[in-house]
Amino acid sequence: MASGIFDTDMKIISQSVKDTLKMGRIIAKNLKKGDILCLFGQLGSGKTVLTKGIASGLGIKKERIISPSFVLIREYAQGKLLLYHFDLYRLKEPKDIFNLGYEEYLYNNGITVIEWADRLKYFLPSEFLKIELCLKQGSQRLLKFQAIGRRYQDLLDKIHEDIGD
């Protein structure tokens, strides 16, 4: 159960892949060790593109980021912070996540990005930044942000400030 959902949500329209990558870099600029980003959205909504932008903002070459659908977790150590990239598309049962030792990643010294976070159901972390990506016309995407927990409200406030700059 989430420990605190805050009223302050944020919505952004991305006009292109380039915009989604830029949004990822803005998010990365404000991340700290242990931060968890849970991405929600249908197939093709831009979750991996956003993750590439986050990686780029952390100093990891975005070309290195691929959907880890067959591996479920990829670790990238070439940037300012470690990046743990989960893609749970092929996760059959939420309890199967325990076989991966996922909690060791969530509360470790890196940033955790979880694509298809809805597959975790009741195993979602107690606090995280929720980002829902929705398909719009053409290459447009609607990104909806929701802070779950005080740390993520602070993070969302900083992201909002940076978008305004």
Write up what this structure looks like.
The protein is α/β, with parallel strands linked by helices and 165 residues long. The chain has one domain: 3-Layer(aba) Sandwich (Rossmann fold), CATH 3.40.50. The chain is built from 4 helices and 7 strands. The chain has helices at 17-29, 47-57, 102-106, 150-164; strands at 5-14, 36-40, 73-76, 82-87, 110-115, 128-135, 141-148. A 7-stranded mixed β-sheet has the order 1-7-6-2-5-4-3, with helices on one face. Helix 1 packs across helix 2 and helix 1 packs across helix 4. The protein starts with a strand and ends with a helix.
In short:
The protein has 165 residues and is an alpha/beta fold. It is 27% helix and 28% strand.
Topology:
Elements: E1 5-14, H1 17-29, E2 36-40, H2 47-57, E3 73-76, E4 82-87, H3 102-106, E5 110-115, E6 128-135, E7 141-148, H4 150-164
Parallel strand pairs: 2-5, 2-6, 4-5
Antiparallel strand pairs: 1-7, 3-4, 6-7
Helix pairs in contact: 1-2, 1-4
What keywords describe this structure?
seven-stranded mixed β-sheet; 27% helix; 28% strand; alpha/beta; 4 helices; 165 residues; Rossmann fold; globular
Oligomer: single chain
> Globular, elongated, flat, extended or rod-shaped: what is the shape?
globular
Gyration radius, rounded = 14 Å
Helix content: 25-40%
Give unreliable regions as ranges: 1-7
Count of β-strands: 7
What is the CATH architecture term?
3-Layer(aba) Sandwich
- Largest sheet, order of strands side by side? 1-7-6-2-5-4-3
Strand coverage percent: 25-35%
- What count of helical segments does DSSP give? 4
CATH topology: Rossmann fold
Distance between the termini: 35 Å
- The first-level CATH class name: Alpha Beta
What is the helix/strand order? Answer: EHEHEEHEEEH
What do we call the CATH homologous superfamily?
A: P-loop containing nucleotide triphosphate hydrolases
**Count of spatially separate domains:** 1
Main beta sheet: strand number and arrangement?
7 strands, mixed
Q: Would you tell me the overall average pLDDT? A: 86
Which structural category do the helix and sheet elements fall into? alpha/beta
